[in-house]
Amino acid sequence: MKRQLNLIPIATQRRHLLRRVVRVGSIAVVVSGLVSATLLGGEWAQGWMAAQQLRELEARYAPLRQILAKQDALNQQIEQLRGRELLTLRLSRESRELTLLGAIARAAEQTSEGVFVQQLQYARPTLEAGLTPYNGELHLTGAGVDGGAIADFASNLRESGVFRAVSIESTSVMPAGSRSLRRYQLVCQL
């Protein structure tokens, strides 16, 4: 058997061992630093590429955002116009109803003899395709002193220009104390 003798002093052996450990440790630190730098660089590059793609997409779809903003503004304007239209339609219907009442009151007042309206039937017309909102009928029931007063009342309604046609549907005698009145039913076409 061969034996080897180490004639290097122990202090020198320790220094060589310490240098070797430091060298291996520093190589390990440098290698791990390079690997970490490579991995972090790869992640940074992917993030930068994703950010670049995001900027390109934002630039490409910027007009779409503007269009969507304009669409929202137009939708709000449409809603405002619809609200105005509904308000205008409601006011026109209500003013139409007030016009009808005014025409009936004037026609009754212009009648030479007494005519009284006891019942008025009017249904708000519905808006359908091809029809104006004022198509419909108005039914008047009441009493008059005689047939001439009722005919005069119907004539005054026709002359008011509010109704397309006014027709006397029926008249009948209605006993009322010492005087006899006539009950009438009128149909007014709107």
Describe the protein's architecture and organization:
By secondary structure, this protein is α+β, with helices and mostly antiparallel strands. It has a domain at 96-189: 2-Layer Sandwich (Gyrase A, domain 2). Helix content is 60%, strand content 21%. The chain contains 2 helices and 4 strands; from the N terminus they run H-E-E-H-E-E. Strands 1-2-4-3 form a 4-stranded antiparallel β-sheet, covered by helices on one side. A hairpin with a 2-residue loop joins strand 3 (165-176) and strand 4 (179-189). Helix 1 (10-110) packs across helix 2 (147-159). The longest helix has 101 residues, at 10-110. It is rod-shaped, with a radius of gyration of 50 Å.
Instruction: Report on the biggest sheet.
Output: 4 strands, antiparallel
Helix content: 55-70%
CATH homologous superfamily name of the domain at 96-189? General secretion pathway protein M, EpsM
Shape: rod-shaped
Number of helices: 2
What portion of residues belong to β-strands?
15-25%
Which sequence of strands runs across the widest sheet? 1-2-4-3
Per DSSP E runs of 2 or more residues, the count of β-strands stands at: 4
Radius of gyration: 50 Å
State the separation between the terminal residues, measured CA to CA: 135 Å
Order of helices and strands: HEEHEE
Q: What is the CATH-assigned architecture of the domain at 96-189?
A: 2-Layer Sandwich
Q: Which consecutive residue ranges, at least 5 long each, have pLDDT under 50?
A: none
Residue-averaged pLDDT? 86
CATH topology of the domain at 96-189: Gyrase A, domain 2
Structural class: alpha+beta
- Top CATH class of the domain at 96-189: Alpha Beta
